[in-house]
Amino acid sequence: xxxxxxxxxxxxxxxxxxxxxxxxxxxxxxxxxxxxxxxxxxxxxxxxxxxxxxxxxxxxxxxxxxxxxxxxxxxxxxxxxxxxxxxxxxxxxxxxxxxxxxxxxxxxxxxxxxxxxxxxxxxxxxxxxxxxxxxxxxxxxxxxxxxxxxxxxxxxxxxxxxxxxxxxxxxxxxxxxxxxxxxxxxxxxxxxxxxxxxxxxxxxxxxxxxxxxxxxxxxxxxxxxxxxxxxxxxxxxxxxxxxxxxxxxxxxxxxxxxxxxxxxxxxxxxxxxxxxxxxxxxxxxxxxxxxx
Amino acid sequence: xxxxxxxxxxxxxxxxxxxxxxxxxxxxxxxxxxxxxxxxxxxxxxxxxxxxxxxxxxxxxxxxxxxxxxxxxxxxxxxxxxxxxxxxxxxxxxxxxxxxxxxxxxxxxxxxxxxxxxxxxxxxxxxxxxxxxxxxxxxxxxxxxxxxxxxxxxxxxxxxxxxxxxxxxxxxxxxxxxxxxxxxxxxxxxxxxxxxxxxxxxxxxxxxxxxxxxxxxxxxxxxxxxxxxxxxxxxxxxxxxxxxxxxxxxxxxxxxxxxxxxxxxxxxxxx
Lengths: 292, 271
Ligand SMILES: Nc1ncnc2c1ncn2[C@@H]1O[C@H](COP(=O)(O)OP(=O)(O)O)[C@@H](O)[C@H]1O
Ligand SMILES: [Mg+2]
What we know:
The complex is a heterodimer. Chain A is an alpha/beta fold. Chain A has ten helices and ten strands. A six-stranded mixed β-sheet of chain A has the order 6-7-8-3-9-10, with helices on both faces. Chain A has a four-stranded antiparallel β-sheet with strand order 2-1-4-5, with helices on one face. In chain A, α6 (about 185-195) packs parallel to α7 (about 215-230). The two termini of chain A are about 25 Å apart. Chain B is mainly alpha-helical. Chain B has one domain (about 15-250). Chain B is built from nine helices and no strands. Chain B has helices at about 5-35, 40-50, 55-80, 90-125, 130-135, 140-175, 180-190, 195-220, 225-265. In chain B, α4 (about 90-125) packs antiparallel against α6 (about 140-175), α4 runs antiparallel to α9 and α8 packs antiparallel against α9. Chain B is elongated and about 70 Å long. Chain B starts with a helix and ends in a 7-residue tail after the last helix. Classes of the chains: A alpha/beta, B mainly alpha. Chains A and B meet through α3, β6 and α4 of A and α5 of B. Bound molecules: adenosine-5'-diphosphate and magnesium ion (MG). Magnesium ion (MG) binds near residues 83, 84 and 128 of chain A.
């Protein structure tokens, strides 16, 4: 686990929780509210028998998946497999057709938009196309959450925005509009907006897709830096294998709505399932997993 | 199985329509809830006021002027044949103030502003900006719909008055060109048109403005993915707003006419 003891503790609660993660076995079904049980639940975020349909189109049939604190989990899958839908389910932006979703032991599945606000404040999401507000400047974009949820004086907001933009190497662009930025710059501003409120969990939707390899790698470095400096739990969905192996503590492969592989990067590399090997090697004609 | 398929299809379509109406009602209620709990911030409102108000002026002036002029051409010959050319003023101005000014201003705004609102919100929807706003714990209705609603509702009466004004001028210039006596023209118009007529025209327009804003924002929020979805949302926003204007117009007139009748009884315009 990357967020081990080497770094000075910025936030004692999160550092503590980091130590308990990754110890017990995966995926045990437990439906009662775990917060009442005292000990922090193994998974910060958990999906339990989730199915999601759009009209007649089924994205997930019966998906159970957990995400541990302090860990960066990369969810891999082909385009259209439902990676973005998965992140939106976690944030409550979409409601599952069936099943339940827990954040920190409490169920969020049927919460109203208003009840979801405190939950969402613990998350930051970096959207696939950055999704910057196009009628606002870079500064207003990054300051949006602070203005919405805090009464900080303008000077403090300005300072925080500057600091977050500096973290993604975008300080100085405060007064530009999103349309004046390149794709890579937009993603970086999107990242700055997601971390402005110092969330516990950051969700990344294909942060490197559509970027050239070098820009993509700078985004990977930024993600690693944010994980280290803010000690966050990360969930990243992508089909970029280089990025997955670089930032992931754990990899999950989605295939036709099911998680067919789940493990550490080296376990995934040696995975016996041919579908997994096809995906990570990018070789569609592979007929059997290579022997190791 | 085969026989019941069409019936099932009709039923499904009906359920979809009713469900959509229900969603629209919730959307409207949420918009009103925000208007009354936190009055819109000026920073959000100003650009929308500019977009809805200032940028609509050219089409409003154009529409108003030509409607007034065309009415004048049509009615002048009718009344001249009766030997009462100056009476045309009453018909032109009454039509403009009561019906054509408000309705045509509404239709023009539905086309210009409604389509633009649906397209811009639809773009925000398909580029995930609305999801992004929700993910930041903010309410998109409060930030995006309320300012647009307030702008339409507040500005449409002024745009309607402008449309009326230009229409009246247009009608006057055409009849003046035909040589109608100016004093008699205005004298007759003033004796026929009451404050009530002007007031009801403007009052109607407030309902049109509210309908345009709510329908267009709703259509934008419901936009399907892709550029095609956004285009569809803009077209539907215009068509549905247009129908809503005609429908509202009929029922409001029905109601107001009833009220007028109860208060003041019936008056003949031409005696
Ligand atoms: N809001 C929606 N309405 C209808 N279908 C949707 C919606 N969002 C996603 N889908 C469908 O769900 C499937 C998975 O989409 P998505 O999660 O975006 O895929 P990806 O893995 O590429 O991110 C796609 O087939 C898409 O068409
Ligand atoms: Mg996606």
